[in-house]
Amino acid sequence: QASLSYSNIAALTRLATKSGWDITRTLDNVKIWTHEEGAVLSFKVEMQVKVPSHVAFSLLSDFRLRQRWDRHFQTCKLLQAVSEEEKIYHVTSPPMMGHKPRDFVILVSQRQPGRPQEPYTVAVRSVTLRGMSPSPEFCRSEILCAGFQIHSSSSSSCTVCYFIQVTSGVMPYLAANLTGSSKSIEDTALECIKFLE
Asked: How far apart are CA 155 and CA 65, in angstroms?
């Protein structure tokens, strides 16, 4: 578990520091970038939020609050609190046109900054858990790497960066965005800001 958790944080850090991000959309307080590498498409969504970074961190690291602002989360149940910093959740997503609803078993690893310049980190990846085998009513999907990095801007504001690496399993949710309309990501980002503030 320690190595899983370490690789979860490391994968997000690696994704965040990759070069070659292309900016696709700029709004007042939201910027969206994409990064393509082989069959994997990554998104980065940067949000300017008027709350202290530690507040954003505590709200974003509890995934049971995620349904309040992310309509892709229909239910989210805590399966196992491995430690204070590692939790395993079962998440279901609403069905899309012609698709069964999806479900995910995810490990969420949270870290406070070790040094002042470092961000707060909430990393997410799929894991397999005995007793949570795929159910016929859902299409079990996988998250390779996703999560948040939260950088303090001032004592009362921060920059929240959300990253996700997208495989074909998550594609139906983002298909609309790939045709040039980043509407779904954009709407979710605005809901996230509203929820945090």
From this structure: 24
User: Residue 68, SS3?
Assistant: helix
Instruction: Tell me the residue length of the chain.
Output: 197
Specify the CATH number for the domain of residue 21.
Answer: 3.30.530.20
- For the record, the structure tokens of 153 come out as 């801007």
* 80: CB partners within 8 A, 6+ apart: 87, 88, 129
Q: How many domains does the chain divide into?
A: 1
Q: How far apart are CA 186 and CA 166, in angstroms?
A: 16
| Burial class (CB within 10 angstroms; exposed 0-12, middle 13-18, buried 19+) of 172 | middle
pTM of the complete model beyond 0.85: yes
Counting as low any pLDDT under 50, the low residues of the chain are: 176-181
Eight-state DSSP code of residue 24: E
pLDDT tens column, 124-178: 999 998 888 899 999 888 888 999 999 999 999 999 999 998 765 555 555 544 4
